Sequence to fold (411 residues):
Amino acid sequence: MGTPTRNRGLTGRLAGAGLLTGALALSACSAGSTAEEARVTGDVPQEILRRSGFDTAASDLADDLRGAGDPEAARAAVERHGAGLWRAAVDRAQGGGSVSGDLDAGDDRPLYWARLGMVSALREWEPSFPLEDSERAALVSELEGLSRGHGEMAFPEDPDALRVVVTGFDPFGGDRDGNPSGAAALALDGTTVRTDAGPVAIEAAVFPVRWSDFTDGMVERVLLPHYTGERPADAVITVSQGGGGFDLEAYNGARRGGSPDNAGDTAEGTIPVPEGVPTVEPQPQWSESTLDRGAIAAAETGRFPVRDNTRVVEVPEGESEWVEREDGPTEGSTAVSGGGGDYLSNEIAYRNTLLRDATGRDIPAGHVHTPVPRFGTEDEEVVTDEVLERDRADIVAQVRAIVLEAIAARP
Fold:
């Protein structure tokens, strides 16, 4: 469907645009690693880092922090290493990286484990100057955002290029699990695809599997600029890992189901909308995809089946028991679960499409669930194999094809 080329817009748009300034809700004190970060010392994460060439990321940052004599020098080190990690992961995924290692280049796990190691090093760093907990938390927030691509989402100036934002997620599950949505984000970020309809420029980023970051407004800080301004995006597509095939989620519910996240935290109830961002009032129980799901599902995008998923779980108006519905929510119902469930996949889809409605943008916006790549072996000590790498590569290629179909099928 066209040949991708690299484009890289302005980098280092750090806190100036308000994208990276929100302090993270930390699950541990600032002086000490969180439970998620502590996992990086395990045998599997260490092998993944070693075999990818990302094993020095944390120690390199720690060395620079030890040499920082003041807050500005520390912030400069965080900016350099955070943005550098994202660029190295993207370049590696797209075949232009200089980082050595025998792990498959499309693997998203090195980015995840390297980031966790770097954040842990930042938490444990003992500066030679006074540093308040809030200042350390701001540095952690900046490192998190920059190493997820949140500071580099600047499109090329080409006025003819259609602009598409694609987001993925961190790995979720066991230490050897990855996430094909994150792998797709790395493969697509900064590329321009030449199509029959003209050039399509793609900017991508990844998000954590943590309730606290969503509560803190991370999604809105990253996506809102692409719904406003003189040249907003032409499509915003969120992606996460799902089941056996691709699901195009039609309806997103305004409810958190409470399952534990990567930090071990839980959250339940109505999805909280952060203050100070455009929203729809009163807060709707449902938001809807504006992807042309029928056209995308009917297109030849790859080897995995693609389904238009209109299933929801709701409490109908005037009733007290929840019911499953295969054809979307009924008027006045209360959301229990969207097509994408009641976890963070559903939540990012809800937040994205709520921003679309609040800003009045009539563009394709919706969520895509990918299949789960499978290992070809049951041996838990094996960190990769041909089956896993083939599945991941095929899923990433199909995400790209689905994104281009979404643009081709727009009104």
